[in-house]
Amino acid sequence: MKRYKRSFASDNNSIVHPRVMEVLQKVNHTHELSYGEDAYTQSARKKFKEVFGRESEVFFVFNGTGANVTGLAAMTQPHQAVVCTETAHINVDECGAVERFAGCRLLPLQTSDGKLRPEQIQPLLHVLGVQHHSQPKVVSITQSTELGTVYSLEEVKRLAAYAHSKGMLVHMDGARICNAAASLGISLKAATADTGIDVLSFGGTKNGLMFGEAVVFFNRQLADSYQYIRKQGTQLASKMRYIAVQFETLLSDQLWLENAQKANAMAAMLAEEAERIPGVRITQPVQANGVFVSMPKAAAERLMQEYFFYPWNEEQEEYRWMTSFDTEEQDVLEFAAAVREAMR
Ligand SMILES: Cc1ncc(COP(=O)(O)O)c(C=O)c1O
Questions:
Q1: Does pLDDT of 5 surpass 80?
Q2: Fewest beta carbons less than 10 Å away: which of 80, 165, 279, 285?
Q3: Domain residue limits at 267
């Protein structure tokens, strides 16, 4: 098996945060009730209410695709549609799971920066009430976006208000919501519940957990059937305590913020280094933990001999570099030196 140097491919490539590993060990000595009936899960649910507000309701799941798919299934019926960006994870990277499991259509829209705006959604809505067409019901946004950009608070609030004014709901894919909140300098509640969104897929894996994501309902009515949807969707963990304790750790002592700030700072540093390399161009504003660059394919391929990362748009010779909470300054400097070398 080929071993690469520190990966800039994905925040999923990172280690488990030591405090998370520690808590997994710590709880690993007793028998507990299963399927979330245990005291650890109850305690983590309480923690979520402290962080996201008393009105919120959290459900733990295994992974981000599961959070998105089951969350969206709770928000839609099969004759309805979800508006998203063309680059959305639900559109590109979930193997059609939303269409298969929720049964509804996706209506992907092109954007230059990964962000949806009400003006783009409006032209889709002339089909509302027409029996021949899938009915747009949900606007799904990703925060931070798949392009490493971050919606401002005003942008999210404006979208949510617009969607609601049209009888629609808002889902946020928050696989990297911690990075977005850190970037905006606001609390998780301010970045989510307070914006008016209805359902959040809250990411843990990219920010220090071994595994586990959460679906957080701010619109409580939508949560009514969710426990059945989660079970049908094979996302109900019998040993749920092992997901719950990881989340409680992430939400305690601001670990979520510490991790996200570190990842974001490393991306900013990498962008600063890369900008100084002739022939490398940053293609998106670096607002969270992703750096998108264009560079000649031959140079990128030379670099990939040592460092693994993904092409984003092969025709445009655009590549994605991700940082994570365990990226160190030294890793960035070494990688930047390798980029410079590959560009020679
Ligand atoms: C924006 C976004 N949403 C969701 C996910 C979750 O995916 P997974 O099902 O691999 O946990 C990812 C992971 O790459 C992602 O980047």
A1: no
A2: 165
A3: 255-343
